[in-house]
Each structure stands twice: as C-alpha cells, then as structure tokens.
Amino acid sequence: MKEKDKKEKSFFNKLHDKYRLVLMNDDTFEEKMSFRLTRFNVFVFFGTFAIFLIVATTYLIAFTPLREYIPGYADFNTRKVLRELMIKTDSLETVINQKERYIYNIRDIVEGRDRKDKKELAKNIPDSIKDKTVFDIDELPRSREDSLLRAEIESQTHHTRWNPEESLNTYEERLTFLFPPIEGIITNYFNPSKNHYGIDIVADENEAIKATADGTIVFANWTLETGYTIGIQHANNIFSVYKHNSVLLKDIGSPVKAGEAISIIGKTGILSTGTHLHFELWVDGRPVNPLDYIVL
What we know:
eight-stranded antiparallel β-sheet; about 25% strand
C-alpha cells in the first residue's frame, strides 16, 4: 500500500513540478527570455486553447456567411430566390387555370356542348363527337366561370361601340342593328331540341363572311366537328359564332367592326354536308334564334 501511495503521490507531485523554459541566442548563448512552467499549467493552457478553437469554429459555422462555403449548407440567397420562384409559380398556375377555364367555356359554346358539369369537363375535354349530350335550352345555366369570362371580355370594351354600363335588359334592346354575316339561302333553322343552336346559310363559294357587330375575336381555330371556326365577343354579353369556314381572316385578340370580313365560307368539319355557314348568337350564355334579330 505504501508503494502504491508513493507512486500516486509521485505522479501528483510531478504535475506541480516546476520547469523553466529558456529562450537563448544560439550563437552567443545569451538568455533572451525564460518561462516558469508546470505540467499542470501546460495542460490547462492547451485545454483552454482547444475549447476556444471549438467554440470559435462553431460560431463561424452557425452565425456567419462562412458556412455557405461548407459543402451541404445552402446559400441564403438561393433559398430566398427559390421561395420567390415558388410564389411566382403558384401565381402562374392560378393564371393558367383561369385561362384554361376561359378557353373551355368558349369551346363549349362553339361546339354546342352541355356546360352543366363544368368541373368534370375541365378535367377531361373530349375531342370526338361521341360525347354529345341532348338538352333543352332551359337547361343551360350560367356558370361562375362563364360570368368571370364575360366580365374579362367586357373589360376590353374599347374595341366596341356599345357601352356595357348601359342598363339594357331585354334581348331586343341588346340585339338591335346586327349586321347579316352573309347573304344566301337558309337551309336549316334554329332548333335547340336537336342541338342545332343556329342557322345554316348556303351561299356561293369564296364568299366573305362578315362580323355581325363590333367586338373582339376570342376564338379562331380548327375543330374536328366544325372545321375552321371563329367566335366574336360583343358588348352586352353577346357572343356570335361562325362555323365550317374554309379560311380564317382574323386571329384571337383582333378587334373587328360590324360588316368587316372575318373568314371565307367553306365546308370544313365532319358535321358539314356542303358549302355553307353555320351562324349562332348567344346572349348571357344562352343561344337565341338569329332570325329574330337579323334580316337575311
């Protein structure tokens, strides 16, 4: 036991043994500087220095921009840019959805589809004539998307000569002085019970079709059923459609005047049986008989 105590005492004493660190000139052996040290002091100094290095390194990594140079840490500006891009992407997605509903609404009117189930139609728009539903004219409600569409079109009324702020309540007041789209012979009349929401007018080949009133082109494209089709949004919630054209003379967004040529008569589309114009008039999202307001 005594030998063990001597060893432990000897080790403890060694920690406090004093040493002298001398710095001297190698040539002259002149003493320049000296330090009195113990093993315990040396351990304490280097231990404190190591802790200081650890704390300083942690602070630099956690609270200064130097962390951006360490692999695995994201740049703050990069996160900021990504957040802004996500916000812009969300906004663009909202705008795109609104534009898609706008196009679907116009396509419904042009192709005479039932617009009762708008959400389902927006998810799956059929491209064939197999999905044709027979419905009565009274079953055509105004949807919220339709109201938004027409509000957007009416905001562009500087292209028209009617003021939508005017309190015009009846069809007769709103459908006054409409221009005949073409001169010819009527071969098929307005019949909603048979899904025929307009009139068919036969005329000579290469005859120009004219706008029935001032407005803006909102649809100008080719469809399988109606061929080259053009649609014009007029003031006071009036929409006109011209189907089976051979050539379209106007593009989407173009303003037109009443009597201005917009297309050439034709027989395009699988629903066409010969050269003619299928002409439709819609008011407040409902089809009306063009012959009640236009003299041909």
